[in-house]
Design goal:
380 residues; alpha/beta; Rossmann fold; 2 domains; five-stranded parallel beta sheet; 17 helices; repeat; NACHT_NTPase; NPHP3-like_N
């Protein structure tokens, strides 16, 4: 994953605004601002923006290549479902794929569901978001969507199926077969974070019914392999989608990528402290950190952020030792062998506990509540 929180816009509102200003060929063509207000009458235009880390160079190479080949194959499946447990890197892979297509001007849209953001925790603004991004891709899309909204000004409040048909599928259906960017790509990340099971099923049903556009559109969906989503895909024809399971990737490949992540992040830590040697913390401890991650990129990121934060106070060695001393009891490991490999929930829980205990051991008892809250936020 990239070291910076890179803003990755497939066709974000800012990019679309710029493109649409060139695309407006007549005086009555609506601006992207006007279009945004029509699509999001209650607000939410920020949903077209997406950000976060992308894969570091020379990491996740095989899985990225596999997905790109699947989605670029003219005879390939219409939908690719990338699934894996929490912390396995699904969203980072999705952003990396989306960024590549955006740079080729072939990303129709990307939408990221999230339990932490009200407007992303349901599918109510999913279609308006991807529509606004699509409108920025070409003047033809922009004009067609404006016409639909002129005839149906209340469509952003209608049933999602009608929105999908009128605002997204119809513009795509107008494309000629020789359109240079075909196929276009739609990336839908973290579908399992939608809090309405009916909406999850509904979104997948929309995708399944859009096969008439399979020469013009390909879809990447990421999620945890939850029952509702597994059943929805199972009910689709097998010729329609390809299942890509991250837990099937060889452990050695995953550990190599996590090792690269640690090396990259620890180099950042060394750059902030003149007292650290060029080989700190040493290969033995680095290998132990990789092993302890048990395939979880979230775990590795948490460890690195914790150590980097404590480095500001010169406490990086204490923080590292605190992490390395956090262990799961052997009987718990025996009971949760599969869970530790797939979800590493016990390991992550213990890491959080150890981080909190470590930080609050260092808290001055005279510290006021506001200072204590700030200390807590270093972990949270």
């Amino acid at each position: 994953m990239q070291n910076r929180q890179k803003i990755v816009r497939g066709l974000s509102w800012q990019d679309s605004k710029h493109q649409a200003s060139k695309a407006s060929d007549n005086d009555d063509s609506q601006s992207m601002e006007t279009l945004s207000k029509q699509l999001f009458p209650a607000g939410g235009e920020n949903l077209v923006r997406w950000s976060g880390p992308i894969c570091l160079p020379n990491t996740r190479v095989e899985i990225l290549d596999e997905i790109r080949v699947m989605m670029g194959d003219a005879e390939g499946k219409f939908i690719v479902w990338l699934n894996g447990m929490a912390g396995s890197g699904k969203s980072t892979i999705a952003r990396t794929i989306a960024q590549g297509y955006a740079e080729q001007n072939r990303l129709a849209a990307m939408f990221c569901f999230s339990r932490d953001e009200a407007d992303r925790s349901h599918a109510g603004k999913f279609i308006p978001s991807i529509t606004l991004q699509l409108a920025g891709l070409s003047s033809a899309f922009h004009a067609h969507i404006c016409e639909v909204l002129a005839e149906n000004p209340d469509i952003p409040r209608r049933d999602i199926k009608e929105q999908w048909s009128k605002l997204f599928l119809e513009p795509l259906s107008t494309l000629e077969a020789d359109f240079p960017q075909l196929p276009l790509y739609l990336v839908v990340d973290a579908l399992d974070a939608c809090d309405d099971l009916g909406q999850i099923y509904g979104v997948l049903q929309l995708f399944a019914e859009a096969t008439s556009l399979e020469t013009k559109l390909r879809i990447l969906v990421t999620s945890r392999p939850e029952t509702t989503i597994r059943v929805a895909f199972r009910n689709m024809p097998g010729t329609l989608y390809q299942n890509v399971a991250l837990n099937k990737i060889p452990q050695a490949t995953v550990e190599s990528d996590i090792s690269t992540l640690y090396e990259h992040r620890i180099e950042e830590v060394r750059a902030t402290s003149e007292s650290l040697s060029p080989d700190w913390p040493g290969q033995e401890k680095l290998s132990l950190l990789v092993s302890r991650a048990s395939g979880s990129f979230i775990y590795a990121e948490m460890v690195c952020r914790f150590i980097k934060e404590r480095t500001k106070a010169g406490l990086q060695d204490d923080a590292l030792q605190s992490v390395l001393s956090t262990t799961i009891k052997q009987d718990e490991l025996a009971r949760n062998t599969t869970a530790v490999r797939k979800a590493v929930t016990p390991e992550v829980d213990l890491l959080y506990n150890e981080m909190l205990e470590y930080i609050f051991r260092a808290v001055d008892p005279t510290e006021d509540d506001q200072q204590s809250a700030s200390t807590f936020q270093e972990v949270a």
